[in-house]
Every structure is written in C-alpha cells, then in structure tokens.
Specification:
The chain is α+β, with helices and mostly antiparallel strands. It has a single domain, classed as NADH Oxidase. Helices cover 27% and strands 26% of the residues. Strand 1 and strand 2 form a beta hairpin. Helix 2 crosses helix 3. It is globular, with a radius of gyration of 15 Å. The chain starts with a strand and ends in a 12-residue tail after the last strand.
C-alpha cells in the first residue's frame, strides 16, 4: 500500500520514513546476469545497511562483522515471514550501492550488508515448497 520510493526504517516509530519519494530504482543497480531478470520483475527491494560507527562504541572493530551477521538473521526472518504476508523474497548479491547511497541520510558512511528482492509470487507456495 506504499507509493513507490526509497524508504528507511525508523526504529523508534516502527515505521518507514520516505527518503526519496516517487523514485523508481533502476534495476541496473543489480549487477550480474543472474540478478537482473529478477530485479526487472521485482516489486520492491530491501537493502540492509549500517554505519559501523554507530555500534563501534559498543563492539569496536567487530561492529561491521556483527552487523553483517545480524543482517543475515534479519534476512532469514524476513524471508520466512514474507510468505505469511503473501509475498516472496529472494536474497541477492551484487548491488551497485554507490548509485543510491547519496539518497540516504548519512549514505556516505553506510555499508550495504544484505539485499532482498520481493514481490507477489506467481502462485501460492504449498507445504514444503519454497515461495
């Protein structure tokens, strides 16, 4: 139900905040022949990024690796719960993050950790079948 655009998650409000409303991301940000066809048909992308300096006071030089680990857990949880919402998510790699980081607050400091492409599956998954 959201209009197109680039949103960021606001943890205090547990809501999405528009950063670049009404923008369509070029599927060309997805590098490699395996990702492009999926990116061309996806309804949305989820990019998990962090500024390692935010958690460095607590985790020191382990801030980025621990953020990567957490992003993997979040991606797994999102993929699992997406099916309950009638959505399909696919983890992908190879995103040209530099082409969009300028649209994000503090983007120059962000590190892309994990990317998922999503949409509505062609058919509902049955028990034991991947979405």
């Amino acid at each position: 139900g959201l209009p197109g655009g680039l949103y960021g998650y606001h943890p205090d409000a547990h809501d999405l905040t528009p950063h670049a409303p009404d923008i369509d991301l070029d599927p060309g940000i997805h590098l490699g022949p395996a990702n492009r066809p999926l990116a061309n048909t996806a309804a949305f992308a989820v990019l998990l990024a962090t500024d390692p300096a935010d958690s460095a006071p607590l985790y020191g030089c382990d801030a980025e690796p621990l953020a990567l680990l957490n992003a993997g857990y979040m991606g797994q949880l999102l993929c699992h719960t997406a099916t309950e919402a009638g959505l399909a998510l696919a983890p992908v790699h190879g995103v040209d993050f530099d082409r969009i980081r300028w649209m994000l607050p503090g983007g120059e400091h962000l590190v892309l950790l994990h990317t998922l492409l999503g949409g509505i599956p062609d058919h509902p998954a049955t028990e034991g079948e991947p979405a």
